[in-house]
Each structure stands twice: as structure tokens, then as C-alpha cells.
What we know:
Layout: H1 2-13, H2 16-38, H3 55-75, H4 78-85, H5 89-122, H6 133-160, H7 163-180, H8 188-193, H9 196-205, H10 215-239
Helix pairs in contact: 1-5, 2-3, 2-5, 3-5, 3-6, 3-7, 5-6, 6-7, 6-9, 6-10, 9-10
Amino acid sequence: xxxxxxxxxxxxxxxxxxxxxxxxxxxxxxxxALVLALNSSKPAELEVSQTQFGYQFGLMVVLVMAALAVTTxxxxxxxxxxxLAVPNRTSALLAKTAVVAVLSTLIGLACAFGSLGVxxxxxxEAPLGLxxxxxxxxxxxxxxxxxxxxxxAMAVGILVRQSAGALSLLLAWSMxxxxxxxxxxxxxxxxxxxxxxxxxxxxxxxPYEERPLGPWASYAYFAGVAVALLAAALVVAxxxxx
Length: 242
């Protein structure tokens, strides 16, 4: 397994996509934090959680990066060489997913602390010290969400295999579908409360009294969806031709 992880790390980091994705995610999240800081009228009332509102921009980039990490292999048929070298497809795909998840976690850490740092520089008078468990959860929760989201994107990429289809599905679901269900009369808000990316948002920001689960239970739900999708993707990958 160590050799597989090393191989997937080399394959991933010797392409331009992850590096550009990391830069784009960092620029978008910290840029959004900078705009919020510059337009803050009451710095003394600013909370740590508000510095992380731009995490969704970085999340979209991570979803794209993770999906492309596997769909490009199907597109150029290099996945066949991988499966020939490693007949155990589950091990190969798990190694690829683990490497992408670790990279996504590192990107999330950079985005979270970068956003916090930019805001602190612009508004030195703002109370942005990580003085509570909630503050730490919000900041360290961003990389946790990025990691689980990358697993979801990998699973969708394995299932769909085409970049355009996988990206369309991921972005449409996270940006549109979960919002549009609120238009359903009477039950729309309740349905959205149980959707995966809504759970990730609840984990980071709440409000917990209006949601079905608390913060860590919400993250467990989100991670559980990721694991379930990946398990389904691995089963499908074992049964069909590469």
C-alpha cells in the first residue's frame, strides 16, 4: 500500500492541475475574506466564523480538482495501465482517493488560516483569537470538509468517468440543487437540512437549533455520505471494464 500511495502522489503532483487548484482555492477564499474585512463596519464585533465564509469558493475548486484526478485517467486510458499494474482495483482507487484527500486537507488548512490571517492583518482590532473550542472547530473544520468533499468528488468521478459529466453533477448539486429544494412547499427546508453539503455548512456555522443534527453529528453524516458513495463507486469499478 505504501508503494501505491507513493505512486499516486507522484502521478498527482507531477501535473499542473493540483498546483493551480491550490492557488485558486487559496486566492478565492482569502480574497473573499479580504473583501469582507475591508467592508466591515464593526470590526470589534467580528467573529472567527465570519472569516471562513468564503470556504465555499475553495470547496468548489477542490471538487473540480478531485474529480479531474480520476476522470482524466479514464479520458486518456491511463487507468488501464494502473489496473494492469495493480489488479486489485480497490487498492489502487483507495490509494488515489487517500492522496487526493490529504492534498485537499492541506489546501483547506491553507485556506482557513489564510482567511483568518488576512482578516487579522486588515482588522488588527478584531477579536480573532482562537479562544474557544467553537473557534477551533470552525477553522479546522474547513480542511475536514474539504477532505470529505474530495472523497465525494472522487466517487462521482469513478462512477461517471467523464470529466464534463462529473463536474456538472458535482457543481450543480452543491450550488443549485440543494438550494432549489427549498422551493418545495412545506417540506423544502426540512429536505435541505438532510442534504450533504447543507450538513457540512451546519457543521461549520449552524444554526444548530434549526437543524436536525449538532455540529459533529452533521460532519459524521457528511463523511458517511462520502464513504457510502466511495464504497458504491469501488463496487462498480470492480465489475465493469476500465
